[in-house]
Amino acid sequence: MRFNRVFWLLMAMGITSALVLPTAGDRFKGKLDILFVPVSAPVRGITMALHDHLFSRPAARDDQGNTQTLDQLKIENEALRNNVSNLKVELDDIYKRVAETDKMGNLAPFCEPFKVSGGDSGEHQSLLITSETIGTLLHLSEQMPVLRPEGIVGKVEHTGPGEARVRLITDRSFHLTVTFARFINQSTENIALQELAAPPTSARGDGKGKMLISQLSLEQVKEYQLTEGDRVLLHDPDGWPAVVQGQTIGRIAAIGPDARHPKFAEIVVTPLVDLGRLREVMVLDKSVH
Amino acid sequence: MRWSAFFILAYLLIGVQIGISHAGSATAAHPAIVLLGAVFIALNAPRKVALLACFILGLIQDLMTLQPLGVSAVEYALVALLVVNAQDVVYRNHPLTHAFLGLVCGLLGAVTLLMHAWIYGLLRRKLNEAGLPVGRELLGVLYTALAAPVVLGILQRMTRYFGFRTVRAASRTRVIRSAGPRWS
To answer: What is the mean pLDDT of each run of 10 residues along chain A (289 residues)?
Structure first.
């Protein structure tokens, strides 16, 4: 009888914490994740290798005889395109703010690579990142941007000794502001990035590996000529450091009417790479914030 | 139940769960391995121990995710409540039992998570926040049911390391003890 009371009290506390006090347990989180890496890292490696073996597309050979899978070539291409969009925005900013030139160089010197050791064992979209040396992670703090050569990955959410958890941009509680751009083939060898006139708008993760934009009306979509394949770039000066503005969020995969608000459009944005399958990510160091 | 064995099991299962989550793709469903661990405990341990152990298992998992503390704890405790009551009517070592329990408990878990996401959204007025993808959850339930015969089959072979004592065995011991030694 006494056990039943204790059990239902525990259940009531669990429900209260889950629904009413969602941040109650945050201070305990991110402290023990590192303990699970000896199990999760090899399991993840085996799972990804199995997935690659079963589902990867046939390899292609280039002029130099190097063999790469089509997925690898696609990722390399996307990384180069993202680099162009980032450099263009960066260059524009340099023209505007010459005084800050030193800060606006290539992002690489400010980034630190981290290995992905696992995903989220719950229902959110996050990655567990670890470093070879425990001391490296100690200077990481929450809200630090996490990047890949192909674009934005997310933000650091919880940090612990030797590990940190990254909330992916596709997680269902992730919000950021974006603009639109398009690559235009000016000639066979010259590809230019054209920024579209659409105003900065809010994008949110859908929890299914994509992001949704639903604040533009169908008329605006038509007016600004947004189409599938257009690139979606970060434009969020309040929440993100200046050096990552213009980084790629993804590409417009579909445009259709919003089911709840028929006059508004629902724009589906897919990241350039599958964020759940990343093996390594770069964390932007605090010094550039 | 030997709690040391339980914590080793929890460590391994949560480690595997973190490893397989989204390893195929960010959009892909994955089996709930920790939930199968909860089913295993609830299938073999006495009622009180099973309920408490499953709640603790969920609590440990909650600490490793971005979801609020208590979601998995309540989910696994509900699973334990369901399975504990079925202990005497199921054949614990049969693969079909495992698959069926994996399916039913996976569905219960999915419904709990969907309800939580829905009520949480209502309470926080995050109406523009995307809900849980129902299709992926249901696919995850299917994977869980498929993985259940393998995972529970392996775990059922290791029951002796957990030192489970069923209610029947415990009451039998009490009766013998109360009778006292025959030579006294």
So the answer is: 86 87 72 82 86 69 65 78 80 58 54 82 84 62 86 87 85 90 75 83 89 90 89 90 88 89 90 86 71
**Bridge partners for A165 per DSSP:** A128, A158
Determine the 3-state secondary structure of A95 from DSSP. helix
Residues from chain A that touch B65, judged by Cβ atoms under 8 A, are: 120-124, 126
The answer to pTM > 0.90 is: no
**Model confidence at B20, in pLDDT bands (50, 70, 90)?**
confident
Measured distance CA(B54)–CA(A17) in Å, rounded: 17
Task: Decide: residue B80, CB within 10 A, 0-12 exposed, 13-18 middle, 19+ buried.
Answer: buried
Distance from CA of B148 to the nearest CA of A (A): 17
The most distant pair of C-alpha atoms in chain A lies apart, rounded to whole Å, by: 80
Question: A259: Cβ–Cβ under 8 A, 6 or more apart, which residues?
Answer: A266
DSSP secondary structure string, B130-144? ----HHHHHHHHHHH
Least CB–CB distance from B77: residue in A11, A32, A276 = A11
Size of interface A-B (CB pairs under 8 A): 198
> Residue B148 and residue B102: Cα distance in Å, rounded?
5
Put simply, the chain A residues between 109 and 168 with a CB less than 8 A from any chain B CB are 117-126, 128, 157-158, 165, 167-168
With CA atoms as reference, report the closest residue to B102 among B20, B167, B162, B42. Answer: B42
- Amino acid identity of residue A33, one-letter, is D
Cα–Cα distance, A145 to A283 (Å, whole number): 6
Distance CA B125, CA B121 (A): 6
Per the structure block, which two tokens stand in for B26? 């960010």
Mean pLDDT, chain A, whole residue set? 80
- Give the tokens for residue A273: 């790479």
Instruction: For residue A51, give every residue at least 6 positions away whose Cβ sits within 8 Å of its Cβ, in sequence order, or none.
Output: A277, B23, B24, B25
Those residues whose C-beta lies under 8 Å from the C-beta of residue A101, and which sit 6 or more positions away, are A94
* Interface touch A25/B70, C-beta < 8 Å: yes
> CA dist A264 to A147, A214, A225, B133, Å?
31, 7, 15, 22
Q: How far is CA B110 from the centre of its chain?
A: 13
